[in-house]
Amino acid sequence: MGRNRLEVRGGTLSVVGGKGVGRELVVGAEKRVIGRNEQCDLMLDDKKVSAVHCEVVATERGVLVRDLGSRNGTFLGDVRIVEVFLTGRAIVRCGECELSFTPATPEAVDLPDFDGFGPLVGTSAAMRPIFDKLRKAAATDLTVLVLGETGTGKELVAQALHEASPRAKKPFVIVDCGSIPASLAESVLFGHERGAFTGAVDKRISPFVEADGGTVFLDELGELPLDVQPKLLRALAEQRIKPVGSNTYRSVNVRVIAATRRDLVREVNAGGFRSDLYFRVAQVRVEVPPMRQRTEDIPAIVRKMVAELGKPGDFERITHESIERLMRHDWPGNVRELRNVVAVAIAFNPEGPIDLAQHLHFLSVPAETHPIASRTFQDAKKDVLHRFEREYFTALHAETSGNVSEMGRRAAMERAHVRSYLRRHGLIDATRGRDDD
């Protein structure tokens, strides 16, 4: 098959036992969810079925059924499963409901012919459907939920959506839900009046007001306290907010994009996130795959990063062997790790060939420079950690032009801790109490 087509093996799930007998769900290349919530693609009105019980999707290997942390489990026959591929006829059980699976003839699905979206690049089968979905979503006001591991570029996706939307000329306001103290969450989201509570010496404007006409990006939405979630749901549904200490609602005109590294569906089933808010923010759901699932995109990503961080011609100095080694790395830090590697490599190699791979974190240390076998475990570990710290904070310092506040936000660390690492590796003057933010 050509690179523009992907053969998937789907099928049909039919309810044959329990409530809802006769209902069917055709499983294709788009993920579908099964559960008790009425907004699920297949709703099962059974108290033993969780709000969002499991998900199904057609893949090259068959229909993938994945339990989503349901309370009573998903079963294939008598076996409770976490995830399983269905390739032939089978009975799947959720609560008291039995679902009969009938496989369909393998189908060749056309992959969208997109190699990027805004600053995002890639030609892998994992990314091209995502670029197509983002392109379509950008033109709408639908709420988008961006999911993915730390470092996959969720904020970049959100910004790209905003810049490709009709709201591009209006503000793009970021709210980091992960850094908000629980007691101040409502105030940070919706603002407050002066004197609304102890310590409210000034009026605070809501980011929904600041972004009027534009986009609010709720980063790490999964960290939002449970008691504030219904108020956010109401704000999204009614497009109006009420500041803390005020009796008056204010209309707002914003598009909301949210992101989280958490599995929100599992949080719903565990009682940590409201199912109604989940479905409201996930009108469009975009899952950004980790780097290890899209290594064929690395050359294109590196080329773009070098163009942003280096000088003309720098990409041609990168050795072919270096790129091949990058494609064999498992990238626990995802795109953020790759960007750090590129930034450090360019900074340390102003001329001559560039071997990006030598700056990978936690790779085996070359025997000729650090003979690990002849050293204690603690000494070897200390050296590797020191090298990682130096390269990480050197790249972070370069990318943020030394802005400690921004470094703290990206590293998810307090500024005081960031400064201690910068001093330790000679990136700021150790004699200074503070450096300019």
Structural write-up:
The chain is of the alpha+beta class and 437 residues long. It is built from 13 helices and 22 strands. Strands 3-2-12-11-8-9 form a six-stranded antiparallel β-sheet, with no helix packed on it. It has a five-stranded mixed β-sheet with strand order 5-4-6-7-10, with no helix packed on it. The chain has a five-stranded parallel β-sheet with strand order 17-18-21-16-22. A hairpin with a 2-residue loop joins strand 14 and strand 15.
Describe the structure using short key phrases:
437 residues; alpha+beta; six-stranded antiparallel β-sheet; 13 helices; globular; disordered C terminus
Mean pLDDT: 87
Strand arrangement in the largest pleated sheet: 3-2-12-11-8-9
Give the percentage of residues in beta strands: 15-25%
Structural class: alpha+beta
End-to-end separation: 53 Å
Helix coverage percent: 25-40%
Largest sheet: 6 strands, antiparallel
Ordered list of secondary-structure elements with their pairings:
Blueprint: E1 5-8, E2 11-17, E3 24-27, E4 32-35, E5 42-43, E6 54-59, E7 62-67, E8 74-76, E9 79-81, E10 83-86, E11 90-94, E12 97-103, E13 107-110, E14 116-117, E15 120-121, H1 128-138, E16 144-147, H2 154-163, E17 172-176, H3 185-190, H4 207-210, E18 215-219, H5 229-238, E19 240-241, E20 250-251, E21 255-260, H6 264-270, H7 275-281, E22 284-287, H8 298-309, H9 320-328, H10 334-348, H11 377-399, H12 404-411, H13 415-424
Helix pairs in contact: 1-2, 5-7, 8-10, 10-11, 12-13
